[in-house]
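Morning - fe (ii) ion inputs below, output right after.
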Amino acid sequence: MNKMNIDNKGIPPLAGICHYESALKEGYSVERNVDLLRRYNYVKKSVHKVFCAHLAKTPEWEVKCAISYHLWLEAEHCADIRKRVSEMREPPLQMDTIPDLNLKKLLDEVIRAEDTVELLVGIYQVIKPEIIRALKNHLDDTNPMADQPTHRLLKFILMEEEEMVTWGKTAISALIQKEEQNQRAERWEKHLTAFLEFAGGISGDLLNETVVVPEPRADGNEYEMDTVPKRDERFKDNFNQSALIDEYYQDPARSMEERTYALFYKRLREMDVPEWMAPIIFKSNDKPWEYSVDMSRQLWDEARHAMLGEIGLYQAGIPFYKYPVDLKASMSLNIHFEPLEAHLILWAIEQGLMPKKTGKQWEWEIATQSENKLAATVQDYDWADEVLHAQIGRKWLVPQYGGLEKAKAASEPSMRKWGESMKKYSDLSKQEEWWTKFMEEVQQNKALNR
Ligand SMILES: [Fe+2]
Ligand SMILES: [Fe+2]
């Protein structure tokens, strides 16, 4: 058919979404669309689980930061996909069922990565590039006007997928330093690709009956996560508790500057919260998806708080790994506590941050009294995030204890037990004093930059 001349008064027609010609395609039926969205949801939900399983034990700080971010993006994408499916006359939604057993077999392998390179290869070199291929096909094939809400949603997801893959591929090449590592990475990629091909790709459109699937690592049992948190070799003396940062920032005898640096350091140490939240989310199988969204957002905020500390130290000319970053909190919680109790402890801490005169508002007031403008911004947003976290705790945790008072009462013995369990980690360090040296370095760097 020839293009028709039509008088649109020179104004882009069809709300600027597309031209008539591209809106003529038949595109996907609602049924096909829903089938595909269910597959994406399943894969993304599984990737979210892989991230939760590996966050604590992955040693590299920068990888912990990125997977904290990406696991929140996965949670958000799944929530958006679920919402879109609910709009397409498809109850029951079946968003928590497995759409294809072969996809499950693939993701059961991905989660069994044995080190950081394998973890990243599985996600950023096998799964995500295939998600990108599937999303691009979907965007090309579906009718852009009839299915505009899906089109819009997938465009946003695609953009974030591409950003994630760019990070992942750069991280993989940085981590592969030796030929032997390279070969291992290639073997793992080949192993997973066979499972991917056997599933016909994420959309199921690449079915290849000739693929021979290798012996799987999965043995049919549920994957058990290793909850012990690890940090990489740049971090030294991980159990040094000699700097009493929580006291320093409150101490009126110290300068506002020193108190502000105690706050930056307090932020930096928050990486232990993602390490302790990841197992809580991983082990919460019986909760609605909204729980994963809220908890993943909180986890990401805590990683962001740690990075805000990292930025504060960068401003002072000090690498974030140079002085001890205490690991006892996540170490003790992940080893000695069940997820529900670990969550209760987190909630109790965050409740304690709310009073005006001693909590987050006060931290912000201290920062605003120093000359450090960045510290004021950091504390301002940290305070906003923590108000959100207190609400998340109220929404998901308090009902499990039968109300606010009961949750508070239950938290007291748990906090005591936690305090006791942390004590045993102090013997793992000589507890050499370092804070004075740190503050001297801050001062020296400041003098050099004048
Ligand atoms: Fe925080
Ligand atoms: Fe928080």
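Note: The domain at 24-198 is CATH 1.20.1260.10 (Ferritin).

O.
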